[in-house]
Amino acid sequence: MKYVEPFNKMSFNEIISQEKAIKLLKGTLRTKKIPSALLFLGDAYIGKTSTAINYAKALNCLNSEEDACNICTSCKKIEQGLHPDVKLVTAEKDVITVTSIREVEEFVSFRPLEGRYKVVIIKEAHKMNHAAANAFLKTVEEPPENTVIILICENIDTLPEPLISRCFKVYFTPLSTQAVKKILPDVEDSLIRIIMGKPGLFISRDVSKDIQWFNSTLKNMKEKNKKSPWKDNEDVKWWIDFLCIFLRDCFLEFFLKTSYCPILPSDFKLKENASREELFNLYEEIQNIKRSIDLNLNKSIVWNYMTYLLGNLITIKKQETTNLEQ
After folding, report:
1. Is 94 left (phi over 0), alpha (psi -120 to 50) or beta?
2. How far apart are CA 266 and CA 278, in angstroms?
3. Beta strands in the chain (DSSP E)
4. Strands, E, within 134-238: which ranges?
5. Quick one: which of 223, 208, 217, 263 has its CA closest to 240?
6. To the nearest whole number, what is the mean pLDDT of the chain?
């Protein structure tokens, strides 16, 4: 198991633009009041997993008690995913099942082998199914001694309230454009605007190809193609993020006669008779769909519903229609 998240070799002081979260975590280390369960909340690709790995390093560092030194054997093992007291749990086939939680229970039932703490990091905790979340609640309610559990979550609405209430919450925010430029100095400004403060996207995806993919899906949508273009829930969320950027650009062109992200499709526009109320209702409905994706909505139904919503407000520009017909 090897960590592939960006920044996992950093100390807390080197993590960019998450000052409030880092201050909270360093406070728990300084006062030695370590929560048995933490809930890291925020969008994907903004450094939650990297921070969780760094917290695991700081908890077990051989040279420091308030940060990771990055040079001791413990820090290096955690960076490489080889430490026997640190476990990273990820979703398989877009879901975390009760089987994975049973493995966690067995893992924390034993005392630490090398470190001061056993640390379990559960990525995309919002993907736990109902059985897994209920099974995990008992572990959080009665955690073994010297055990720290970190739940990394994008959508808190999918977790049961009893589980949420027993966790120490740490909030993460998207990075500013200036902060992203520090991390990705060679990336074009237009692409930085596309990723919306989520620099980790450049590690996990080919953003340029994703732009082409999104543009082609809009054309398929206009042609009433009923086949969903999404492979998994992350595809749906990423597509909706693109759609929100596209709509924002449409709004600016519609109301202010200016453009913000010209790399998105220029052959589509809002219908001239669209009202502000319709546009804001559309945006709100799209956000509601995004929040519900992890409840395993049927992707074909979501696609057809999106086609219906956008078909009422988006049209192909006349000059482009002529080109397409030729």
Report:
1. left
2. 21
3. 37-41, 86-89, 118-122, 147-153, 168-171, 268-270, 314-316
4. 147-153, 168-171
5. 217
6. 85
- Residue position matching structure tokens 């709509």: 247
Q: Looking at residue 65, what is its pLDDT?
A: 83
What band does 2 get if pLDDT is binned at 50, 70 and 90?
Answer: very low
Please state, in angstroms and rounded to a whole number, the distance separating the CA atoms of residues 280 and 282: 5
| Residue 279, C-beta contacts closer than 8 angstroms, at least 6 positions apart | 247, 251, 254, 270, 313
Closest CA to 259 of 275, 270, 272: 270
Residue 8's CB is within 10 A of a number of other CB atoms, namely: 22
Radius of gyration of the chain from its Cα atoms, rounded to whole angstroms: 22
In this predicted model, what pLDDT tens digit does every residue of 32-87 receive, in sequence order? 999 999 999 999 889 999 999 999 999 999 998 889 999 999 999 999 999 999 99
122: Cβ contacts below 8 Å, ≥ 6 apart: 89, 96, 104, 128, 149, 150, 151, 152
Cβ neighbours of residue 156 under 8 Å, at least 6 residues apart? 39, 41, 126, 164
Kindly report the backbone phi and psi dihedral angles of residue 319, in degrees, each rounded to the nearest multiple of 5, phi listed first: -65, -35
Identity of residue 133: A
Tokens read off for 238 = 């990423």
Give the C-alpha separation, 326 to 224, whole Å.
Answer: 20
User: What span, in angstroms and rounded, lies between the C-alpha atoms of 171 and 96?
Assistant: 22
pLDDT of residue 237: 87
The candidate with the shortest Cα–Cα distance to 135, out of 86, 99, 89, 85, is 99
**pTM of this prediction?**
0.81
What are the Cα distances from residue 235, in Å, to 22, 94, 130, 221?
A: 30, 11, 22, 16
- pLDDT at 194 exceeding the cut of 50: yes
Of 38, 6, 23, the residue nearest 152 (C-alpha): 38
Q: Within 81-154, where are the H helices? A: 98-108, 130-141
